[in-house]
Specification:
The structure is a homodimer of 453-residue chains. Chain A is of the alpha+beta class and 453 residues long. Helix content of chain A is 32%, strand content 25%. In chain A, a hairpin with a 6-residue loop joins strand 12 and strand 13. In chain A, helix 2 packs across helix 3 and helix 10 packs across helix 12.
């Protein structure tokens, strides 16, 4: 396990004799979760492009066979999308049944109509699922209502939701839901926007005598930073867990994963991580607290988060930045973010340049207390503990830039910064700034289709 | 005059019947200032490149014939260069005689030796000037001492100062000092690092019956942002002014100019603006307060600051961002900086994309209080007052992106954002993020000479 993961474990519910292990699949790996995805022409609405079925799925449903304990963590951006407002409300309840998600349209900055549209998406999903035989057979007491459905959207800002397509999509999607790895794969694809590949993971752990599984998928590549990203993440588990315990566990895991990555410093309007726990593993709820569940959930979220950084728009380098010795953790985070969001530092990473001068400069304007005469800056190969210092005790070392560049020219490296002012620590996963990022995001006035995206 | 300049005038010492006017030249336009620049092999030390004399000047002296009132504004970066520390100290006094400046080496992160080197630069300059006949003839009471000299350096961080070259450079430079426009032009060239052209300006105004001139040069292209930039600015004036009044005037002018620009959000270790006022215009000091002096100084600094943005590394667009309606000026500034430092917003400007969704997203994560349902976002052609709104009263307007893009595709445009929450205002001059910026700053591992710069 990576050093930082090991560190995360320390402050969690630990049971190191009984570790979790990774298994195949993602959100359908736990018992009692079904899903499906379809194309309903939201991703390239009106352009006639990309309508080949199967390639550009843009609407998906994730359903638990029985009511599941729900937890959600959402963007802290003041300008937040309509589906975030609806899902935040529905996640306050103890139980939920399903998630409906679309890509291609963020339903953000769409006013009252946007809120109505997000509510309609929940209602349409509830009514489509309610008609399915597979759930009728379970003879559950209550019908699925709109409040049991969480809604997520990702894509363009400020464009009205094409509700006809959404309606058609949900009706087409519902009958196809199944517990299948290939369906889960299609859902992981359907939530992609600028992502270049699917992001999925599943783990298995023992809770007492029961085997519990946690599965997850996510999306995100640009607008990635602070209090979460343009990212959407879905976690399913068959663990039996108290609602309050799940909400707390998801908050901790998010703090240690999705809130520790940055691609471009932009926090999106639609960031959401939603967890559903349906209890079908049959474990005792009291045993969860003594188990590896939190560690496993941290691991799932951190691996998904790292996949987002690695797939960052146009990025060519993945930098694990270890900031130590700040006066407190808050200052460590401020210092780490100043470095990882500096355009100049990120541009130097792009060229594989171990430019510590720009790092010191960014430290100097961060809100952390910095005394340049005692700072250390060093680099390490991915996964090794041997740090090669470029700057130590406030002085440049004798290590040649060329030697350091052998480390920083790799697609993955660790950056270690020690301020020697206290015990504050923060780990941040960051990416470089490339010409491709700019080319990707700049739009082209000669092609209006590329504008406003 | 530009609208924002007109706004600046309102809160200054105004005498609109008697405006200032631009004149030719720069720091030698005011009476009693001499300067010279030489090449002494700092810019490309050891590579053998760029040694053609006249093309790569890297050391300059600016001298006042008689002791001049001095004011300085320096970087707020905690990691600040040795010359900044020395100049800050020397600028606390009332009077100074000269400035020595080099490019090619920032003398930052160089420890105690760096401080000693900066002090030596002041001492070498004082002793070289003291030997000159031109000053001996003025039969001034006191000799020039090291404390009368301010020191500025700009260039690479973390490289020891090549003091032999500096010594040689100062000795070679001193005898050449003269009050000549071509010398001033050479000094403006000598302070350039990644700048593509000289930045110089001079104005003239009446103070009572006297004619006062203010001249200025500056440099800066990358690491440009908040509490000043990687910039160095020198202002000379022959106005007679009290030391306290000059310090206050320079602070106000800097607030309204160099602190209102951003290229890449990085604040440098070496930012310095120094003003010298030698009183040779012969005006009465009391008249200064009733004159246009502050307006003229604001204008000089703002024009120089705008030149920096226009010459921003790799930039292709100059955006004057007018943020209004924040709860207070501080929140207006926070909102403006969130927009202008967003990688996504800046990448969209590069493509000429009027992407208001990204602007709203950045507003949402700024520290300003934002209610998306009442925000306005609009664009205007440079210098016109007609705003074409993309988003008004919290809704997208009917104006087509294509129509908006006709404005944003120009190399200069105004962006107007109104939060409708109060009376807070801020104007920020910003630049786009281009592939060229990244290419320029990324270094190249195959060429160690490009690393660490």
């Amino acid at each position: 396990m990576h050093e930082s993961d090991a560190r995360l474990s320390r402050d969690c519910w630990a049971d190191l004799k009984n570790p979790f292990r990774q298994v195949a699949g993602s959100i359908c790996a736990p018992h009692g979760f079904k899903c499906a995805a379809v194309f309903c022409d939201i991703k390239k609405l009106g352009t006639g492009k990309g309508s080949e079925k199967g390639q550009k799925r843009d609407l998906a449903l994730i359903v638990s066979d029985i009511p599941a304990v729900v937890a959600g963590v959402f963007t802290t951006n003041q300008v937040c999308a309509a589906p975030v407002k609806i899902s935040r409300q529905h996640a306050r309840k103890e139980l939920a049944r399903a998630i409906v998600v679309n890509s291609g349209n963020a339903n953000a900055c769409t006013g009252l109509q946007g809120l109505r549209d997000a509510q309609t998406m929940a209602r349409l999903t509830a009514s489509a699922l309610d008609k399915l035989n597979c759930f009728k057979q379970l003879s559950l007491p209550a019908r699925i209502s709109a409040e049991d459905v969480l809604v997520c959207s990702t894509g363009r800002i400020g464009v009205p939701m094409p509700m006809k397509n959404i309606d058609r999509g949900i009706r087409a999607c519902a009958p196809g839901i199944a517990r299948s790895t290939s369906n889960a794969r299609q859902v992981a694809e359907a939530i992609m926007t600028t992502d270049t590949h699917r992001k999925e993971i599943a783990v298995e752990l023992k809770v007492g005598r029961s085997t519990v599984r946690i599965g997850g998928i996510c999306k995100g590549a640009g607008m990635i930073q602070p209090g979460m990203a343009t990212m959407i993440g879905f976690i399913t588990t068959d663990a039996a867990i108290e609602p309050r315990a799940l909400k707390r566990a998801l908050k901790i895991a998010t703090e240690k994963s999705f809130n520790r990555i940055t691609v471009d410093g932009d926090m999106s309007t639609n960031d959401s991580v939603i967890a559903l726990a349906n209890g079908l593993a049959g474990n005792s709820k009291s045993e969860i607290q003594r188990s590896q569940f939190q560690n496993a959930l941290n691991f799932v979220c951190l691996e998904l988060a790292k996949m987002i950084v690695r797939d960052g728009e146009g990025t060519s380098r993945f930098v694990a930045l270890h900031l130590r010795g700040a006066r407190n953790d808050r200052e460590a985070e401020a210092a780490a973010r100043a470095i990882a969001n500096s355009s100049l530092v990120r541009a130097s990473w792009c060229g594989g340049d171990p430019n510590w001068g720009r790092i010191l400069c960014a430290l100097g304007y961060s809100k952390a207390d910095v005394d340049e005469t005692i700072v250390d800056v060093g680099y390490a190969r991915l996964g090794t503990r041997k740090i090669l210092f470029a700057f130590r005790h406030g002085r440049p070392t004798n290590v040649a830039l060329k030697t350091l560049a052998k480390i920083t020219a790799a697609p993955d490296f660790d950056l270690h910064v020690d301020l020697h002012r206290g015990c504050g620590e923060f780990v941040l996963y960051a990416a470089d700034l490339t010409e491709n990022y700019v080319a990707f995001n700049k739009g082209d006035v000669s092609d209006p289709e590329t504008l406003g995206g």
